[in-house]
Task: structure prediction
Amino acid sequence: MQFEELQLIDPILRAVRDEGYMAPTPIQAQAIPHVLAGRDLLGCAQTGTGKTAAFALPILQRLTVAPPAHHAHHVIRTLVLTPTRELAGQVGDSFAAYGRHTGLRHTVIFGGVNQNPQAQALHRGVDILVATPGRLLDLMGQNLVKLRGVEIFVLDEADRMLDMGFIPDVRRIVGTLPRERQTLFFSATLGPEIMRLAKDMVRDPVRVDVAPSATTVEAVEQRVYFVEKPDKRELLVRLLADPAISRALVFTRTKHGADRVAHHLHRAGIRSQSIHGNKSQGARERALDHFKSGGIRVLVATDVAARGLDIESVSHVFNFDLPAEPDVYVHRIGRTARAGAGGVAISFCDLEERILLHAIEKLIRKNLAPVDDNPLRSYIPPPRPTDVEPTRPRPQFGRGPQSARGRRL
Ligand code: AMP
Result:
């Protein structure tokens, strides 16, 4: 599949070429024709799959080829809501890059900074607004932004919006949008709560699923340690003694858990930090910079904090706690083995987590072999089939070759 086959107009194709993209990623190939045709979309995809271009390219094209429905100067025609300012910034940069030959105007608004420059940009008039919910509501409350001309609405990372408690804000904003509109709804997972939200926002959507590809999962060497819960931290310290572990991402279920693990590692002389939603923006960025520059070897994160982070060359992913949703396991271990390089994923499984392990094994269709030289072996009986509830159907893994996915993958 080539971009030329997607019926994109010349200014968009030129921008795509300027970016050096060779071929559409699977989500782009699947989503772009439907978005161009005006359909609503329910996209199950995480950051890194090329999902921003999957919505930005056809939106730019629709706005370019169709004259505005309203003739007023200050009509915002597309609204994109994102949970964080970083993502808002990235999405804004993408619209700037992909829209450079279209003449369309966009701006990005988010909290934590002076609102005046944002209000001025809105006053000058934009076609596309990328915003985080809190600041948008603030500006709406001051009558500085009007959404009655919105033709296309994008909700990006809906699951993260949910994790961060933004759903009431999102619902308030969506309540002010015209009912006649196109809605593109994206989420890395589509659990029951997300599906309820989606149902209220999209009409007869096309569904597009792009989970990490099976090749990603296969390229990762996966091991499991059966360990008693109180022994997990000590086991992690012992395993991290291996110098082959050059850069490790450790996932915990809770924010406090992340702090406790990072603290324990620190006391054991292992350079590490934690990132999670309770940390300030600055603290998270510093930790990430340290990790990327090699100043710390271990980053302990919750799923929410790690989502959307572009962390390259992680040699090992540790599942300190197994995730409650099996597909989260696939997302986590996809962090290693990027760009076709093999990586290692090590999971700790305590007695209560056996059932979670079983669900993961069912999803990835292989059993994880327990490690023989477990220094802290405990007797954890294997799960019995009767313990296991039926799992959800296996998500569709990526369909294209690995090389067709995002450049940073
Ligand atoms: P996203 O999932 O939107 O965050 O995109 C992930 C990365 O993939 C970004 O750095 C994009 O610039 C890049 N990307 C998006 N589409 C393509 C493509 N078709 N070919 C190569 N890289 C792409």
